[in-house]
Amino acid sequence: MPVTSAGLLLVRAAGHDLEVFIAHMGGPFWARKPEASWSVPKGEYDPGSEAPAAAARREFLEEIGTPAPEGAEVDLGEFRYSSGKRLRVFALEAPGFEVDEVASNTFELEWPPRSGRMQAFPEVDRAEWVTSAAARPLLVAGQRPVLDAVAERFGGR
């Protein structure tokens, strides 16, 4: 059975463009990668026991460290990675949303490799607003179609 994740992408108008709130993945593998290392705040959930929109909000809180703003989510649909993983993405207009600091959950990893030492790293090390055009090369390849869905739904402004 494929892995199922849900994510919440905050959106706001920026002049004639849209901005999206995306997160840079934490840990040593992503540390020095400026492109294809950002993501919609998201995470795995069990479709049999949790609604996807609720999972998206829970994962946003876990990865960013603050609750997503109130409002009605717009279901952008399901996106499939080449690995078979499925990601359900919701968008939420959040013109006034700002965070001073990201306080993400952590994960453990043997680092350096084959050292026998386990270290904790944040799932997300930073998050910020970027224009949808600037977001395209930053996002991991499997999530780039989300930007097309955002432009279609919110008119590309």
UniProtKB/TrEMBL annotation:
Organism: Agromyces agglutinans
InterPro entries from the UniProt entry: NUDIX_hydrolase-like_dom_sf, NUDIX_hydrolase_dom, Nudix_hydrolase_domain
Protein name: NUDIX domain-containing protein
Domain of life: Bacteria
GO molecular function, one term: bis(5'-nucleosyl)-tetraphosphatase (asymmetrical) activity
GO biological process: AMP biosynthetic process; ATP biosynthetic process
Annotated ranges, domain Nudix hydrolase: 1-152
